[in-house]
Structures are given as C-alpha cells and as structure tokens.
Model the fold of this input.
Amino acid sequence: MIALLRCIKSDFYKLRHTSIPWIHLLIPLAGAFMFLLYYHTTSKNSISDIRAYLEILCIAFPLLIGIISGIIIEQEEQAGNFQTLLCSTKSKNTTYLSKLIVLLLLGIFSITLAIGPFALEFQVVPYLFYLKEAGALVLGNIFIYILHVFISLQFGKGASTGLGIFESLISALMITGLGDKTWHFIPCAWGVRFCDYLVFKFTYHSVNSYATQVALDTKQGLFIMLFATCIAFVTSLFWFRKWEGRKSYE
Done:
C-alpha cells in the first residue's frame, strides 16, 4: 500500500508541468459555463435541458479518456521505453494500478467540475440528483479507462484516440432506439444510459409497466457493467504482469 501511494504521488508529480491538469480543469469548466450561458438566454430551466447537458457530457468522455490515457502512457514511453513503468517497483502491478488510479481521480475531478457549477445554477432538481448522475458517470467510465490504458500500452496514443472517437459516436447512437436492445453489452453506452435512467426515474414517479420495464432493463445493465468491469480489471492485472513492452522494443 505504501509503495502504491508513493507511485501515485510520483505520477501526479510527473503531470505538474504537462497539459494534463489544465485539460481536466479548463475543459469541464468551459463546457459547463458555455451551456449555462446558452441555457440562460434560451431555455426554461427544464429537466430536458439538464438531460441534454448530461448526455453530451457522457458522450464526450470516451474521446477525452482516449486522448488523456494516450498522453499519459506516451509520457512513460518517451521517458525511457516504459522502463520506469516496468522496473521501478518490486511488483509491476503497483505501477499499473497507480496509473489507473491517477486517471480515475483525474476523471472524477473533471466530472465534479463539469456537474458542480451546473448544479449550482440549475436548482430545479435536488443536489442529490446531480450527485447520483456524477456517480453513474464515474462507474460507467471505469471499464473505459481500463480498456484505454491497455490500448495505449499495447498500440499507442493514436489507437487510443481513434477508439475514443469511435466510442463517442457509438454512445451517441446508443441513446436512440438503436441501443435499446444492445446497450447493456457496449461499455461506452453505460454512462449515458444510466444518466438517462436517473432522469427518467426523477421525472416519472408513477409505477407502471413501462417504468418497471425500464428499471429491470437498467438493473440488467448494471449487473453486466459491474461483472465486465471486474473481469476486465483482474484480466488487466494478469496481462500487465506478463507485459514486457511493445514488440518494437523487445
């Protein structure tokens, strides 16, 4: 545990003079204030405005995760062909977990900045609603972070960014009728679908057959997400333990 904490501290130190902290600070704040400014002049502060903002936020995250993961892993590559990542601790998994935790913490920070100012301005729903939405987005992104760390390590920043673009496009499609039967099995759809469900649950308080069906559908998606995320996490640990760098460096 001490070694992991030291690695996390070291990883944050490495990011001090890079663009990563500014990306996580400025992009979510800029997005929140742009939407607030737009809604201030055009909207009626309705729940549909909140839903639209959250959907766009969820759709944008796979692309941002792809870019950020690629940049952070590329930093390790340029610093010495991953030697620090592979040899700096007794357990290779310590450095891997450190990178993953740092990415998740940065993601949580960005989500907080993106939703926080919006929640302060749009008080038509309780703050607990926004907290649940933030939690749903964080949980929905964990698998994507694991996937993009793997892609970045194995194939590089370009592949991670390209996959992020593809995932954002797919997540946009998954909020339409095209995703009703398949979204459970598509990781980039989890965040936006769970956020939409929370909006639906807040808007429609009555219990009917359709609401029951939506609730069961969401529970199924939640189970699949948690199961897949656990499997991906354990598999990634075993994979990284055997990983010795990209083939071009072997």
Q: What stands out?
A: The first helix runs from residue 2 to 14.
